[in-house]
Design a protein that fits this description.
The protein is mainly alpha-helical and 293 residues long. It is built from 14 helices and no strands. It has a single domain, classed as MetI-like (MetI-like fold). Helices cover 68% and strands 0% of the residues. It is globular. It is found in: Cell membrane. Keywords: Cell membrane, Membrane, Transmembrane, Transmembrane helix, Transport. Belongs to the binding-protein-dependent transport system permease family.
Length: 293
């Protein structure tokens, strides 16, 4: 059918509007990237920099040459890798057990998990629990309390419940135990869900901030997001902080704002790079290649 003139006009207006909104959303990110590559002298002399005449990598060289930032990036990387792996193991195994009809006391466990989503204990009880377990000032204080969540468990549980029972029965006939069924059948089928949840967990661990402020007093264990906040405070108010003073002391060569922009770009880059490789799993069906006909 040939589209009418009014429909084509409506489609064109939609495309124009969505393009404008996309550009407006993208502009702040582009501005951060541009400022991070701007030469120090040009940034100081100009009130607004739209497109720098002289590009420079001084801010990135300076940040990557400071032990404080490299150490904080390493802490965030350990949180993202170790925390994501442990969260996927706990979430997938717990969800699989809860999805089995023969589990005794299944309703009790489901209600208990649901209550954790409806009623939060609060900051002080959480801190008392972490402190009583001796986890304060350790990296485990940023991982163990947030290993999984009720929302992830229920989604993964429904995921496993939708898998045809014939697959599990066939595996049992071939001699697989319950653990064998989980590792040989369920996990391969759940790769799309694991990839999607893994991205959620990785972003959450990489952006760890409040729990680090609450549980970590050791400067050597600060994740990158905490250091970025200290950089913002240091550059804006000139409040002295020994752990980040070295990163601001060279402001005569690299302005603090340029350092901040470069730090933001570096901290965002890993997630931006990883996301395209996992994006396909968001639209991929979980049963592809398992059951035909």
């Amino acid at each position: 059918m040939k589209a009418s003139a009014s429909y084509r006009l409506f489609q064109a207006a939609n495309y124009v509007l969505l393009t404008v909104v996309s550009l407006l959303t993208l502009l702040p990110f582009l501005y951060v990237v541009i400022i991070s590559f701007t030469d120090a002298n040009e940034y100081v002399t100009k009130s607004v920099v739209i497109f720098p005449e002289k590009w420079s990598l001084d801010s990135y060289r300076y940040i990557l040459s400071t032990g404080t930032f490299i150490r904080s990036m390493g802490i965030s990387a350990v949180l993202a890798v170790v925390g994501t792996l442990l969260s996927l193991v706990v979430t997938s195994s717990l969800s699989y057990v809860l999805s089995r009809k023969r589990l005794k006391g299944k309703q009790f466990f489901l209600v208990a998990i649901l209550l954790t989503m409806l009623f939060q204990p609060g900051m002080i009880p959480n801190y008392m629990l972490v402190d009583s377990l001796g986890l304060t000032n350790t990296i485990w204080a940023l991982i163990l309390p947030v290993l999984t969540g009720a929302w992830y468990v229920f989604l993964m549980k429904n995921f496993y419940q939708d898998v045809p029972a014939e697959l599990e029965e066939a595996a049992n006939i071939d001699g697989c135990s319950d653990i064998g069924v989980f590792f040989r059948v369920m996990l391969p089928l759940s790769l799309p869900a694991l990839a999607a949840f893994g991205l959620f967990f990785a972003v959450a661990y990489w952006n760890t901030y409040f729990s680090a402020v609450l549980y970590i007093n050791d400067d050597s264990l600060r994740p990158m997001q905490v250091l970025l906040q200290l950089l913002l405070i240091q550059a804006s108010t000139q409040v002295a902080d020994p752990s980040v003073a070295a990163m601001i002391q060279s402001e005569q060569t690299v302005p603090p704002d340029v350092i901040k922009m470069a730090a933001v770009v570096i901290s965002s880059l890993p997630i931006v790079v990883i996301y395209p490789f996992l994006q396909k799993y968001f639209v991929k069906g979980m049963m592809v290649g398992s059951v035909k006909g």
